[in-house]
Amino acid sequence: IGPLLLGGADILSNNGWGYLAELGWSVLLGGQLRLADELDCLTAAVARQEVVATEREAYLQLRHAYVQTLRRDLVVGALEQQVASLGAEQAAQEELIAAGGGVELDARLLALEAVTAQGSVLDAEEERSDAHLALCTLLGLPPEAVFLPEGAQLLTLPLAVPERARIERIVLRQHPKLLRLRGQFAIAEKKLRLEAARALPGIDLGLGLEDTGPDAQLALPLGIELPVFPKGAKELAEAQADRERIRAEFTTTLGEILGAVDAARARIHLRQRRLELIEAQRATATEAIEIARKARDEAGSVDSTRYLSVLRTAREVEAAAVKADAALFEAWMDLEV
Fold first, then answer.
1. Do residues 288 and 317 make contact, with C-beta atoms less than 8 angstroms apart?
2. How far is the C-alpha of 285 from the C-alpha of 294, rounded, in Å?
3. How many C-beta neighbours within 10 Å does residue 212 have?
4. Which of 55, 210, 248, 271 reaches 20 to 30 Å from 186, CA-CA?
5. pLDDT (tens digit per residue) in 172-181
6. Three-state DSSP class for 26?
7. Using CA atoms, how far apart are residues 171 and 207, in angstroms rounded to an integer?
8. Among 164, 2, 136, CA closest to 68
């Protein structure tokens, strides 16, 4: 709405006043309104997807912390059993000494071995305490409120490693990092389409009224934008560059994840072989203890030093078996995405 200053409004006057009023709107081409609505809906969907990805990452972190705590608890339990076994050996030796059939040196050596084993228990308890505190930190709870169930054990592992192609499909479908990047790419693609639509010229429609004195005129103005410079070129280029950046990041991240998967599959095979080897050593160590005990008690052909060496080796094998079992479980966890 605005005034008009006219020259020669009629034959007797050189100037005159009037007014002009117009009401109009622009018709957006290229489906800009539809694309804007779709962008809003997509942004909301990606936000919900972000929540799912964050919850998945929190679950994996919590699971790893729980397994670490349980693993160290099992190591402590195995070492405590060894201490108890050494204590029983020491008590039996002292009974023999009291009955006049034992050797004082053997009892003292067993006591020293028990002290060494107790030191190993303390080291393992410190590691368990650190893992437990890390678990409490993730849960946001005080240490006294977080405890392992009675008799908790690691879950039974699968017998065979899944094929790489199957793992790759699962990774593409549900890995949190890829979920985020896929959502970001969808938004970038929609923004690019919207910027491309905004680069199209718009059409202006309206209704106008002009009053210059004797007569009033009603008009229907129609116009089209003809920009001198390309419209939205900067925004369009930025949107395209952002989309390509996310595409490249997705490809790089996928390669890193699949590389980690290959490494985890290799670790599973190696740790499985190591566990099988240690399990065989465990059976051999148990037999060696029985043979050495029988030779010491019945024939006296094994002295205390050799007997303690057998006990020490068996103790090391038992601890290694527990650690190898937990290490294999951790390698399997690396495949969980």
1. no
2. 14
3. 16
4. 55
5. 888 999 999 9
6. strand
7. 58
8. 136
Cβ distance 282 to 320 under 8 Å? no
Pairs from 316-319 (Cβ < 8 Å, separation ≥ 24): 317/278, 317/281, 317/282, 317/285, 318/78, 318/81, 318/82, 318/282, 318/285, 319/75, 319/78, 319/79, 319/82, 319/120
Token reading at 190: 């929609």
Q: Which single residue is written with the structure tokens 């004797």?
A: 214
Predicted confidence (pLDDT) per residue in 149-168, tens digit: 766 666 677 778 888 889 88
Q: What angle do CA 78, 81, 87 make, to 5 degrees?
A: 150
Reference 49, options 210, 148, 175; nearest CA is 175
Nearest Cα to 288, choosing from 308, 262, 271, 274? 308
**85: which 2 tokens?**
């076994």
Burial of 96 (0-12, 13-18, 19+ CB in 10 A): middle
Q: What per-residue confidence (pLDDT) applies to 60? A: 87
- Cα 56 from Cα 258, distance rounded (Å): 18
In whole angstroms, give the CA distance from residue 162 to residue 168.
10
Per-residue pLDDT, 38: 87
Cβ-proximal residues to 173 (8 Å cutoff; 6+ apart), any chain: none
Rounded Cα distance, 39 and 42, in Å? 5
Distance separating alpha carbons of residues 310 and 290, to the nearest angstrom: 10
Count how many residues are written for the chain. Answer: 337
Max CA pair span of the chain = 150
Contact 6, 15 (CB under 8 A): yes
Low-confidence ranges of the chain (pLDDT < 70): 1-30, 101-103, 150-155, 200-232, 297-304, 337
Rounded to whole angstroms, how far apart are CA atoms 297 and 95? 13
> pLDDT digits over 268-300, tens only?
999 999 988 988 888 888 888 888 777 776 666
Nearest to 274 by CA among 316, 324, 317: 324
